[in-house]
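Re-run with default settings, no changes from the original entry. Doing this only to confirm the output is reproducible before filing.
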Amino acid sequence: MKRTTREVRIGTVTIGAGHPIAVQSMAATRTQDIDATLRQVQLLEEAGADVIRIAIDNPKDVAALAEIRKSTTANLVIDLQENYKLAEKVAPFVQKLRYNPGHLYHLEREKNVREKVAYLVAVARDNGNAMRIGVNAGSVDPDKVSQYSHGDSISPMIDSALEHCAMLDDLNFDQYVVSLKDSDPNKVIDANIRFAEARPDVPLHLGVTEAGMPPDGIIKTRIAFEQLITRAIGDTIRVSLTLPFERKGDEITVGRQILDDIATGRFRSVPRFEHKGLNIISCPSCSRVENEAFIELTQNVKEMTQYAKEHDITIAVMGCRVNGPGETDDADLGMWCAPSYVNLKRGEESLGQFTYDEILGRVRTELDRLIEEKKTVA
């Protein structure tokens, strides 16, 4: 497949238009913990990160970012999350702004989305920032979701991305990239192929969100990257793994290894990812995580559920309130972690809130119940 995208500059890195694929990751710390965040930035830079993302949620995070910038020359991307109005505060300190179209509805609901996008473009243009339109399966524009059948999660993502591309085009702003992410590598492959056919000029950032822990998370990511990059789709990548603090650089190492394998023709994937048995999805630890016990919980869930590894059941463990509620909906059992408790769900149904000490026992009870129900149906 022949595909030549336009060029987009992110600080000292240029992507698209035949430039090497950039590798990036995200700091897994509370941004206000300046020392810890700088340590993560250092780990990622040492591993070879081209771009590093940090989440901003409030004015205190903005103040911390200003201090962080004094101690690093890294190319930084800011994840604006739900507060797009912070853009003008953070833009002077970063090289790229990332916003999620589905999150633009959370603030100033009386203002239409086009006005908000115009504001973001003006800020980016004034500060020389690139932009990313980041569309995630679990937080898609609700208006787009309502237009399709319940089983079609890809079309709303593509429609949202195309709509926002058109908005930026209308504003004569071309320094943007798009990402379409899901925890299912097959959906990541399908969504990006369809988008690339519609907009071959737009650079794409690739990633399998909530890929989980190694080695499963690496396998899922590798499959998506191999299938897309060999089609000339993908200009920058992120490997999202649930990892301990000091191993965050492994995301960069794994990403570069996958790129090297693709370049030298060493492939390990099949055309479709066919997962059989227990499937544990977990998000990468990042600055949105409200309790670091999330990482230990994920590992404990994996160990505790090994007795059920032959059953086709999906369990999701999410670390925050931003993506957790929506991105656990498709799992048989889903958890999203708050500071002092864990929300447990069965599909879209809430089963309540449990302390970190209680949650494993309740998950086992619900898992046993699911196994018995599946036996009955079979």
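The CA atoms of residues 85 and 119 lie 9 Å apart. The longest helix spans residues 359-377.
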